[in-house]
Amino acid sequence: MAETWLIVGLGNPGAQYERTRHNVGQMVVAELASRYSSRFSKHRAHAMVAEARIAPGGPKTILAIPNSFMNVSGGPVAGLLKYYSIDVDKLIVVHDELDIDFDSIKIKRGGGHGGHNGLRDIAKAVDSPDFTRVRVGIGRPPGRQDPADYVLREFSSTERQSLALVLAEAADAVEAVVSVGLLEAQQRFHAPKS
Description:
Shape: globular
Number of strands: 7
CATH architecture: 3-Layer(aba) Sandwich
CATH class: Alpha Beta
Low-confidence stretches: none
Strand content: 15-25%
Number of helices: 6
Mean pLDDT: 93
Order of helices and strands: EHEEEHEEHEHHH
Radius of gyration: 15 Å
Largest sheet: 7 strands, mixed
Helix content: 25-40%
Structural class: alpha/beta
Number of domains: 1
CATH topology: Rossmann fold
Distance between the termini: 40 Å
């Protein structure tokens, strides 16, 4: 049987958070579902899930958006890994990243959580930090604005003009990890933009 991947987009539930920077991971997973005409349905692991194949004959992918708040994403992620019998090395978590400029995408496997409570909770729940992260840059807050406040605000009007391209590029990065592997995906997406 072909391997199965779990792709999780982090964010917070509820309409008030839908378009905030913290929910960019959910936006990317929604973009992937749209590409494959996949519909989300409720899953008992406290998440919305959709199934897709990134390429004809390619591995099955489970696209997931936890119904929990960002800081307690670990339970739903661990539940989905168990339900679908997926190993942690086939988990991709898409999330916002303060330490990367807006409109930049970085991919890595493992490492610390860098203060990101969603990643911290997932690593604890799955008992390993060794999953792949597609990190969507949102940049640092201006001036002395509190980062916790900044991530819960909507993208600026200038950022919104290019947000669709950023989401598409992050979705492309997820597809690349699944189809060509981590190393080649990193080479493709970490190259300087011309």
